[in-house]
Amino acid sequence: MKLKILGLLLACAFVGAQNIQNNPGSNHGNKFEQLGTILPTPNTYRTASGAPGNQYWQQRADYDITAYLNEDKRNLKGSETITYYNNSPDELEYLWLQLDENQQSSVKNADYPSSSTLPKGANIDKLKTSDLPAKDDGYGVNLEKVTDSKGSPIKYVVNKTMMRIDLEKPLKAGEKFTFKVDWNYNIPNRMEKGGRGGYENFPEDGNDLYTMTQWYPRMCVYSDFHGWQNHQFTGRGEFALVFGNFKVSMNVPADHIIGGTGECKNYDQVLTSAQLARYKQAENSNEPIEIVTLDEAKKAEKSKSKERKIWKFEANDVRDFAWGSSRKFVWDGMRVTIPENNNKVMAMSFYGKEAYGLYRKFSTKAVAHTIKTYSEFTIPYPYPVAQSVEASNGMEYPMICFNYGRTEKDGTYSEAIKNGMLGVIIHEVGHNFFPMIINSDERQWSWMDEGLNTFVEYLTEEKWDNKFPSKRGPAWTIVDYMKLPKDELEPIMTNSENIARFGPNAYSKPATGLNILRETIMGRELFDKAFKTYAKRWAFRHPEPADLFRTMEDASGEDLDWFWRGWFYSTDPVDIAIDKVTVATPDFDAIPKEAKETKYKTDAPLLNEFEDISKVRNKEDKNIKFYVDGDKDVQDFYYKYDRGQEKVDTSKEYTLKTEASEKLSTKDKTNGINKNITAYQIDFTNKGGLVMPIILEFTFEDGTKLNDKINVQIWRSNEQKVSKTYYFDKKIKSIQLDPMKETADIDTSNNYWAATASTETPSKFQIFKQAQKETARGGASGRVNPMQAAGKR
């Protein structure tokens, strides 16, 4: 009974704030409305749960390719036989292929010009006359012959980077069509022209390193959600590709070493007996073994054989094929077992002497760590091989990726280069999962492969080293981007070609959003189950954004439409402010005898450098064993500090409690009522527009701390202003909003309040008068739930 009386008395002091929430008026927007028709209508191909429907289908294309690498002319000549399977319910009158190398051509490219201005301070002598029309620079695909399985010519049309095969008769549902394409192209100098494939020349030894990517005419995707995905390739939006089986033969100089998608089927014909023996040793080693040694690579650089060898590779259930070739390659490998499916994978690395000091120590171990960690968070790695090639860039393909990371000439390297190399290797190897297996449409939605992959990259970096300087993933790292003016931002749900700030939009913001979901909104257990469900449902299929959004809700039981709407479809930032704090101490004779109000203070020191919430939780999780802590050799040369001296700061309570702060201690040893209760009404303003949970850290006068997290649903009735009332049996010294910077709040200057001793205490009469005014402002009804006013949920 005394508790109810206390609630009624306190209601008088706080009726105004409660009326704001119960009578939102014009403050209610649509932040909590369902996405509804924004998402495509579910059907028998894609269900409302986010899973593939019972009539889901996708096409398939098998390739049999032969390639001849002419090192002297830097030319690639190829011939491919494609067997295309029409698994759709539709008849197809034509087929579309991608000619990606045409992007390197001055006359065959996609012709997506950019705005240009006069250079400032240009020397007139250095200005050149423009070639109008453009002259052919000799790059791009040269089609030699296109025929059917009987050798008869097939009619085709090339539109920039796309090629249409016109069928003599429609390809019916369930039928397949086999045709052959012969082509060649001049391999561009990747270091000068840019692009994803080409060669790099090393003047000191006169050798080239070839990255053969987007090198063959490739089938476009025909799908239930898009039809033909034949958007032009501009160099940014990457690829939509069809799964299939590959057989590839590469004819290269005899002293070249090749790493490629899939498994080599003739190592016994292309390796020396010593190299073959080392490969077999590496197959059973848990430490990297040099298959081609540094001395052998240096010797090959000088000899430059004029003989030829043919390497034969096979890969099944992949969407693409890439390879690297050079006589400069050192090659090492080791066996790694994926626990979830007992898959024994060959983790391997290829690199020149310029990268030896870094890659020999780290690369293959990073490859192994990546596929094991991604397997924990998504699906078990299904392929037999995972490879990292140092090629002074970063690009991904099935089972192989190209990365950077070279030492100084004396073999030394900086921490920045080392960490950058590790981050790139983890990221590019991680692309085996997104989008090589969970095969999203990169041409349309870059974030579905880059953003999701960057998120799991962050988790993988954390499990490599709890101190890893990740730049994408932690909420606080996206703040500078979110602060930008609205006219410099686009929603994540923007086509790849139209994004002004590609890195933050396609990589950082979606990765950060998923991390906020995992750490702050859903919790790790719910999130991890839902994310794994998405990966399992859409492995070796073609997911769309709606499939991810729906699956995350379906598997977790969380309504996340407010989050997709705010974080993915808008450019609103998070900026929640502590507007004011009202303090009241109840007088049990009649009404509260003490009440005071102070504006938030911003002069208290805020943390600038700290361990974010993921690092804290990972370090406290006894089930997590960091990669570096389990490898003495890596640990010895990876760190310059003694990890054993690190201590967890136990003075802070990082477990977010949602109930403890509202439990009232109502009894004491004298009369059963705690007369030292102090009530605090905290008023919040949503200045940024993006709603988010409210996370508070209370510091009391006795030095103790308490954390509370208020569910985002508190904003559902009023998206601009809300209030929350707390009752404590000890005085608060300060209140910190979002103490671990979990929500990407762009302005932390309004996140702090401190009690002041100089505030005048009003009289009982003043309090009574103020309560009446607040009641009048609350509207005609003035209805207040006493238990709600007392802080009960």
UniProtKB/TrEMBL annotation:
Residue span(s) of domain Peptidase M1 membrane alanine aminopeptidase: 368-567
UniProt xrefs under SUPFAM superfamilies: Metalloproteases ('zincins'), catalytic domain
Cross-referenced Pfam families: Peptidase_M1 (PF01433)
One cellular component (GO) term of this entry: membrane
Organism the protein comes from: Epilithonimonas hispanica
GO-annotated molecular function: metalloaminopeptidase activity; peptide binding; zinc ion binding
Protein name: M1 family peptidase
InterPro entries: Peptidase_M1_aminopeptidases (IPR050344), Peptidase_M1_dom (IPR014782), Peptidase_M4/M1_CTD_sf (IPR027268)
Gene Ontology BP, a term: peptide catabolic process
Keywords: Signal
Keyword Transport among UniProt keywords: no
PANTHER family: PROTEASE M1 ZINC METALLOPROTEASE (PTHR11533), PUROMYCIN-SENSITIVE AMINOPEPTIDASE-RELATED (PTHR11533:SF174)
Domain of life per record: Bacteria
Region: Disordered, residue numbers: 772-793
Signal peptide from the UniProt entry: 1-17
